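Open question from group meeting: does this chain pack into something compact, or does most of it stay loose? Before anyone orders reagents, we agreed to write out a predicted structure and look at it together. Recording both the input and the output here so the notebook holds the full record.
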Amino acid sequence: MRGSSLAYPPVLDRLRPFLVTYASARRVEDFPEDVLALLGPANRRPQHLNLGLMVLDPDGKVLRQATPYVRPPAFQFDPEAQGKDFLRQVDDLLAGLTLPAAPKGKAALALPDVAGKEPLAGVRVYLTFGANRLNHYRTPTVEAVKTTKELRQALRYPTEATTWKATALWPWLEQIYPPAIMDGKGGFDRIEGELTFKPAGRQGDTRWALVEGDVAFALDNMTKIAYTGRLSVAVEYGADSDEAVAVRGVCECVFPKHNPQGQVVERIRMTAAIESRPR
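Structure tokens returned:
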């Protein structure tokens, strides 16, 4: 749920007594099972769900639910104005209910992470954006991505330079898209390109390899947004193991921003940083 009115702090304060869980995914089917168990009683599971609110009692019975009106153009793309209206809708949803006491204090901000003690259990993908006309995407996006068995195998130390298809890094690359534009099925028509994977020397007991190349992205949304990025990733290894233990990389893109008529009105810089948990 990238780019929502939940970024307006008073909204989170209002919801704090109720927020026991949340989920963010391209498709409802990608939600964790415990979240899907909540969507079922609310008859939400089969629907495309951009943003939904549900109030449950302690036994899990759905008391009320609402699909908030969230339309950035109606508020001149002003996140504070939209946030205030969203707060009004939350107040309407909760009106007349006996509310639990809000917990004291505020939870510390924590970045998403991937569970696992093994080296390179997962990575974080950080998205930041350059200045643009309507000042979209002011809040950075952070996604946590688990390292799959296939990705771990692909990243084993190379004895010589090899060439990959960009799809070898699909779990990382499919996170590199701007917030709030997934009006299609929530994916890509294609991610393609050729990447070079090669040894990059040794420093003490650490060996390095580099992944480099151009990647072409095409979303499955209505305007078929397409853009190209230059990817560079440094992969770290121990002295005696071919298993990757850490990665750090960057992908620089410029994507076209369309108006409702499908015309390109500006091009916005998007930078993706890919980094594993510090060891």
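Observations to bring back to the group:
The CA atoms of residues 120 and 245 lie 5 Å apart.
The mean pLDDT is 83.
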